[in-house]
Amino acid sequence: MGRNMPLNPGVVHELVATAAQGLLFPLGVKPRDITTVGPGHNRPLILIHGYGHNRSALLPLETYLRLLGFNRVFPFSYSAQEGIEAVAKKLALFVRKVQKACASENNTVDLEAHSLGGLAARVYLQDLGGARVVDQCLTLATPHLGSTNSSWAPPAVGEQMLPESAFIKQLNRPGSRAPGVRFCSLWADQDLMIQPHENAIYNQGDDYCLPATGHLGILTHPQSLQHIAQKLSANQEIPPTPLARTATLARRTWRLGHSLWNRKKNKQEN
Length: 270
Fold this sequence. Notes:
Blueprint: H1 9-24, E1 45-48, H2 59-68, E2 73-76, H3 84-101, E3 109-114, H4 116-127, E4 134-140, H5 155-160, H6 166-171, E5 182-188, E6 206-210, H7 222-233, H8 242-269
Parallel strand pairs: 1-2, 1-3, 3-4, 4-5, 5-6
Helix pairs in contact: 3-4
């Protein structure tokens, strides 16, 4: 019976994603310098990786977004050894540098953060004035309400992420939401790092569950990439690229085919 047991797609996807992250890791060891790009069509986007990773963790997402026309993407690199609050302070400095590089000191930026990076983003938004300069914050597999399984992080940081920790209570205190910032939390239904899974949902803004994937798989899940691109495209004009046009045509074709199939199926049943 064991030999005939089908493999769990979520487990397979997570294993492949983990292997891919290992291969990509050397590409992000050195932080990328912020280059001056000047004004552009879309808001600057800052990518924030999770604990134990580097900017390479979000390289697939960055590549996908750039192919779609997002040409102002800046990966933020950090070490969480000093604690989440210290990361948030470094993020505040990084945002100011990005605004200067994009000649948009008076305009907003977007944040996209994975895992612990999302907690640092919230500290920045709620306690360090980030809400004044951020339009949208998307989090992937971030333990907004903590995680009972935080042993994967070193003791100091792991204790901060426990559901009953002083840090998590302070982060989610009444009235702590960053005013004016649009939030969306993406979470995975097979995330072994965030327990329970629903603790990755931030109760302000939208949330979206990625099926059959885990903590690292969410970074490359097709639905995750598409959802992020759609959210980031809201309220701004992204110059279309050949890939973007092809993707739009493919989505429309799929929807048309799906609609025709459903109509045919309904007629047969009736």
